[in-house]
Write a structure and sequence with these properties.
155 residues, 2 domains, 4-stranded antiparallel beta sheet, 8 strands, 19% helix
Length: 155
């Protein structure tokens, strides 16, 4: 039997110490995987414990005239409001308007319907918001309902 051995001799280039030093610098600049994992875990904990969650408040009332309801708790803060319901307009002068009022008396129109802006006299709508889609963390007080020659079922 004959064995053949081939030997390769590696002769490093003159600048090999610089190459090794450069590699070490690159490795030191990256963040450790444990730090990245820790940051991700903390972010997930913060997101799951966030108190801002969508809340649905059932009203289940029908309005044939103006009214005002107080569905909010004293310490509620809202960042948006959408409403759902059914509107029946009875004439050319019919009007349904829903207005959100905060504790300072400021008003935002949540929904409005009258014959000139809607196509049908009787219809259902879901999660509508005119000026209340995005609010800047207001403390709500009440919801005013303005009804004239119409009926509004608040869901």
């Amino acid at each position: 039997m004959t064995f053949i051995f081939k030997t390769a001799i590696f002769i490093p280039p003159k600048n090999s110490s610089r190459l090794l030093t450069f590699k070490r610098l690159i490795m030191k600049t990256f963040t450790s995987p444990y730090l990245i994992l820790t940051i991700l875990i903390i972010a997930l904990i913060c997101l799951t414990r966030s108190p801002m969650k969508a809340q649905t408040i059932p009203i289940d009332s029908t309005f044939y005239a103006d009214g005002e309801i107080f569905p909010f708790s004293p310490n509620d803060t809202i960042y948006g409001l959408s409403i759902s319901g059914h509107v029946t307009l009875q004439s050319d002068t019919s009007l349904v308007r829903v207005i959100l009022t905060d504790h300072n008396g400021q008003e935002w129109m949540a929904y409005e319907a009258y014959p000139m802006i809607v196509e049908e006299n009787s219809f259902t709508f879901t999660e509508e918001c005119d000026e209340t889609c995005y609010l800047n963390g207001i403390v709500p007080n009440s919801i005013q309902i303005q009804v004239s020659h119409a009926s509004f079922q608040f869901n």
